[in-house]
Amino acid sequence: MANKAYKFRLYPTQEQAQLLAKTFGCVRFVYNKMLEERIQIYEKFKDDKEALKQHKFPTPAKYKRDFPWLKEVDSLALANAQLNLQKAFTNFFSGRAGFPKFKSRKAKQSYTTNVVNGNIKLANSYIKLPKLKWVKLKQHREIPVHHIIKACTITKTKTGKYFISILTEYEHQPVPKEIENVVGLDFSMNTLYVDSEGKRANYPRFYRQALEKLAQALHFGQSVHDNGWGLFTTFLQYKLAEQGKKLIKIDKWFPSSKTCSCCGRVNVSLSLSERLFRCACGFVADRDTNAAINIKKEGLKQLGIA
């Protein structure tokens, strides 16, 4: 089984918008309340790990008894707030993220709900959602009939627009393809990537300028570009897998930039400021293109066809 998400613009009525605002607030309240109580519990049992393991953390059902107005919103949205907090703590204890933070009203407003007994349906440019009933949406593309809706995430932007991401599940058996074409990609600070044919990513210049300004303003530098590369790699791997294709990642210590793609000689003294690769064998090429060719060759080796 595989998953695919579809994002559409929502157009709630005034009454539905009020209920959405209430749901966003209730989800944030439950998340923060559970986080607050967990912090208190961890502090109370910090010297008694056995007692901490046996302690049962509060659930949204408990808060509904204390705060009856929570019953007015989608119960599945509150349950997902609990799951999100649990995931945040799991990531923290595994070292993948920092300690969970309280959610602010100024942060992104969103909540997730799940399909239970056909409570979510799509029909005639409307979607049926728990508590909200039928909400108008702009469905600019069809969801295949064999895709089963599993969950929906509703989001409100800072400009007041509403969107819904519909997560679907479908049976996907990609047909393995014969290796007909292999391309090497070398990440570049200026154009995202350069491929082994010398082609560069041609994304809008204003995007690059905005990224550079963000890096300067936040003093992030390289890390901003690293995040962009990571996101690109994630999307690329997902899209290739859908088509039965494969992404091969080369070891980050592989000297792709310092190795001559013509003779294989390694230029250990090559500095980052040198944008042209020159080899004693007479080979001259753009530094990133040379690296991309080496990455392609290394990928072919890993595929066992070089």
TrEMBL record:
Lineage top rank: taxon: Bacteria
Residues making up the signal peptide according to the UniProt record: none
Record has Metal-binding as a keyword: yes
Keywords annotated in UniProt: DNA-binding, Metal-binding, Zinc
Record domain Transposase putative helix-turn-helix: where: 1-45
Domain Cas12f1-like TNB: from-to ranges: 229-295
Pfam family, one: HTH_OrfB_IS605
Gene Ontology MF term list: DNA binding; metal ion binding
Stored NCBIfam families: guided_TnpB (NF040570)
Protein name: Transposase
Organism: Caldalkalibacillus thermarum (strain TA2.A1)
